[in-house]
Amino acid sequence: MKSEKNLFKQISVTQRLWYGLLSLVLFSAASCSEKDDPIIPTFQVKVQLVYPEGFTAKEGVKVTLENKVTNLVLEVQTGSTGLAEFEVIAGAYEATASDSSYISGNQYLFNGVKSNIVITDAWSGSEIITLDLVESKVGQLVIKEYYFNGCQNNAGSGTFQRDPYVILYNNSDQPASLENVSFGATIVANSQATNNDYINGELFYAAEGWVPAGFGIFYFNTPVILAPGEQAVIAINSANDHTGTYTNSVNLANANYYVFYDPESGFANATYHPAPSALIPASHYLKAIRFPGVTSNAYTMSAMSPAFFIFATERITPDAFSAEPANRNLYGTSTSQVRLKVPVDWVIDGVEVFQKGAAVNNKRLPATVDAGSINFPDVKQGYTLYRNVNKAATEALASNAGKLVYNYSLAVDGTSDPSGIDAEASIKNGAHIIYKDTNNAGADFHVRGVASLK
Amino acid sequence: MHIYQPLGILLLCFTVQNVFCQYAISGKVLDNKTGKPVEYASVTLEGQELWTVCNEKGDFSIKNIAVNEINIVVSSLGYVRKTFPKKISVNTAGLELRLEEDNLALAEVTVTAKRKEDDITTSYLIDRAGLEHLQMLNIADAVSLLPGGQTNTALHLATSLPQTIALRSLSNSESGNPTFGTAIEVDGVRLSNNAAFKPENASSIYGTDTRNIATGNVSSIEVIAGIPSVEYGDMTNGVVKINTRKGKSPWMVEMLTKPNTKQLSANKGFSLGNNAGMLNASAEYTKSIADLASPHTSYDRNALSLLYSNTFNKSNNHPVSVESGVSGNIGGYDSREDPDLFKDDYTKVKDNTFRANFKVNGLLNKSWITSLEANGAVGFSDNRQAKNVNKSSSTAIPVLHGQEEGYFIGARYDDNPDAPIVLIRPETGYWYQLKYTDSKPLNITANVKAKWARTFGRIQNHILLGTDFSSTGNRGQGVFYADLRNVTDNWREYRYDQLPFMNNLGLYAEEKITLPVGTSQLQLVAGIRSDNTFISHSAYGTAGSLSPRFNTKYTFKENPDGFVKRLVLRAGWGKAVKLPSFEILYPRPTYSDTRAFSPGTLSDGTSFYAYHIYPHLLTYNPNLQWQYNMQTELGVEMKLKGVYIALSAYNNTIRNAYTTATSYFPFTYKYTGNSQLGADFPIASDDRQYHIDRNTGIVSVSDLTGQHADIQLDYLERKTFKSNEMYINGSPAVRRGLEWILDFDKIQALQTSVRVDGNYYYYRSTEETIDAHSPSVNMADNSPYKYVGYYIGGYGSSNGYETKRLVSNLTITTHIPAIRLIVSLRVEGTFYNSRQNLSEYGGKQRSFVLDNKEDYLPSASGGSIYNRNQFVGLYPLYYTNHEDMETKIPFAEKLAWAYNNRNSDLEAAALYNELTKMVIKSGTNYYFNENTISGYYSANIRVTKEIGNIASISFDATNFTNNMQQVRFSDNNTQQSIYENGSISIPRFYYGLSLRLKL
Question: B395 in contact with A at a CB cutoff of 8 Å?
């Protein structure tokens, strides 16, 4: 098997050599007849940021242009009119920009993304690409950590994946209520899968103002208040101590933890939803709504590349909202892939995970929920997504003086927390961490090599 | 008793005898090239039922010939079967009948399926030359040579599902289970699959798996696609007859290599000396791997067969042939994980078979009987599947074994291994579960048939009377496990070997009359078959069926000089009945397990889950009729100047196809939550012992320390449904088709012949029986759903589909006898391939158009659901609710009422929300669009070259143009590579090489 692979490799290397030689010959032929300077032509690309009504463009906003083939990222700051100018080679690009403003004590976040910018030889340089920024909400509650990829088992015979969890965190200075806070993950579950929600290159539901929550939702139906800086750990499958059998996993048997557990809802599969640890009181069980038409008795979400979000229904309970047939939608050709049409306005936080190394990753969360995405390696090594620290805000808290731990070293897979603050170590020191929340997963998260609960 | 009446009438009609002059012939069969006698050649008088076998000197003699014009058919292994027409008016001796050795030096060699013109129904013959040229690995490969046949896309044998044959149908998803309805016989012995159960990974029972049939010793394959003789019972979709080598032959060794498969076979026909008979022995080794990069998933075939044959009384005009054979195969499917992953997971499926048969055929040649044949056969297979799967868990797994109704609480395996609910959690947390699915079908058959051939002037009359008995059972243990401690599957024992045998007695009578009409000839065959099935200890008891069949053929006088040289017209009508499989006869008991209580998991991982177990009743349907096929066929064969044309048109209707019906009944259970078991519960969690009352479902907790009295927990009553299923007879399915062969005369200058063959196939079926369904969903208040909908043809968006397909193949064969080379190029073209989902009953629409995907009410403008690009909804006809299962509430009216009043009436609004849960919608707006796939093709090239008389080599390349074209799907206007879509398939670019040696 090995030798065959090598053989294949050799062939492709040989082929590449041939192509290389061929292009060299062609290139030298061309250069002989024309000119001797093999400069690759570049083009001027102008990106104009367009703010929602009532807001004006400003100078110094960072705009990025990513070459989708080479993954080369260029960053330019806008001028006073909100125009950013780039010099690029031909290719397919994606432009993104994020901005925040504090007006009358309120924070406003603006995000924009534009894909499929194709620069060809026909590009004159005078074209202006408009990048519409949309206003997004800044929540009190943030997803501090999202552990979904599982870990290796001890026998070397595979992986363990019944241990996902999510940590919600009160990132504000006011108490936050979790009542009616609901959890959803999109169908399409995997970013690398074919996505039939794209119509003419756009997510059709983004224009309709909703986000799909697939199969069912879990929600808090008991009053839970998180104090500023307090967190809630919620086990998604099995709230038990897994470390006895799977030493790489986590112990989710903790009286303070919460769990997605509601066998009455129809999500009664004992493998996915085993009885939670006796330590966890029944009041910590989240309620579930399994949507009509769903045939699975297990609530599942992607273990590779989920698009996961939290929302709170407004002036209606999650039950009542889900019961209304008009609030549901069917995905693609399956009648069992039922989704709840969650209004974008209700979304508190969301994270768009892309599978690292996949040939294609399709975004599922609209820019208002998550303007970017974070690449996550599907290695099932106990890695987790962890939110970056808002360095300025955290350091600005006088109470944190002397409690912050720096030289954070647990970011892996080429990601980092630019703040350099080790949030968990600092929390243990009594620090109050304020996490970064720009509604752009690429900027807000990093891949942490170890779950914070380990 | 019904069977005896027609039999009596038939017998009465032909008790009159007529005696004419009788002649005798004798002579010698010689090798045309060497002039040496051909030993033990078989000599048959066509249409006379008279036959004999030559002695070792090639001598033969036949007496009592009542006609003047005879066709002497001579055949012997290794020679081309030849017909010698003779006119006799006196006893004739000294006939010299010369046979040509069968090789590529002959002027005529056919490597495609030949229409068997002598047969009164549509049947085809593929002989050894064709099979060798095809490099057949699997009998199923050979059907690609039939008109419009397409190369098998299963390029190897290592597939996890059986490989089967279905004649005149497209897929096993069609109504009536066509692969199961296609009969396969090896040397006259039926390979029955009736006692098998469906594979774990399949949705329906399959027909006979052809992978265990050795291909190295096959001499020819006959395919009866039309209406067969009444001697063939227990089939609805035709018969495939495999004939193995019989007779003296040198060692034939064949080596075949294809990228995924290696095969080695050897066979020889031993002459055991004068009058001692002949022994044909063959052995074959075949190994196929699924993936070239990894040899870990494979299928092995190690086949051995011995066939003894002898003919006694060769010289006294009452020859008796005796045939006795044993054959077997050891092998099967083996799928292992790549060992580099340190995993011992595997799936192994044995495909071991043993077959023994005995046949005696005596030419009695009496005035009241011509010949009598008796045969018996035993077939036994061991299809045990072993599946080893790595398991691990950090918490206890409740495993349900209970077979009785009631509430039960789990017990640790060590405390009570026989508990209805066992809590599995080995100390290590890691273990293997080894599961066996043990199926050992056993099939015993015994047949007797008598033939009576008579001549009345120029009228020939044949009567066939026979009976066949088959007894089918399964000696397997069903599913069981190596060690119950490690079992995490919910498992209830269901032993196949405790199921009663299905015995079937078939009686049949057939009359064949051949009479001249002027210079032409009319042949009529009328037969009736009665099958009586006896199943002891079963609700089905005894079931009977009658199958009448008629075939007629009109042969115009040959006119070798005219434009129409030969013309034959055929017509047939008949019924064929398939006995049910054990899967249908003995429906596997199923259990519905409802979680009633699950207290928190203890620190050791144990949680005392409690379930309510409901064993679904084994509902036998006393009115279940055996499925049958009504066949009508028309055929034309003609030889025109320059071209031979064979056409067959058929119209087959499967009736009483097996389908299931579900019935619901209200069921209320108690669910006990954990809310009382918080920190303030008096008994500490490690000191609790839980009990659940088997009948009431009430949970109580006792204190192991004895400090507290028992505490009963509060519960919730949940009203839901349980269901039972039974097999019923479904709606009919229609298959129509036209098959054609055009053989153009050989272009002598190029030594090339051209064949165009193909078929048009049409299938349509809609299931119109009413089936109940309650969606698995909760009410808005989180209680279980309380309504049951009754849908026509089940709750699928469609209740059937229609397919149409036009396939035509072009075969160009260049045969150069001088260098013993044959090269064929075959282009298989699919010109029309369409499928449309249907939703109809009684000729009307069963569904309705929705204006909008999100709507639940029909479009006000109505319209056909088959108009392009619209969402389509389906309502149940009526529904019932939990409190009153008798009152059938019309669904459409009630939903419309609820919709119209939902803004003024809270009850109506709630009902509207609930009823919409029973509305089924098409998943896409193109679901009911006709999906026509644009045309595609695949081309194969095959070469066979003989090197003297000793060796021959074949090479083939399938899809040698490596066609990977894009095809367009008209339903949603998408385009895909031909490989991306499972519904169409052409083989990959593939090649094979084989070498045959005669030693």
Answer: yes
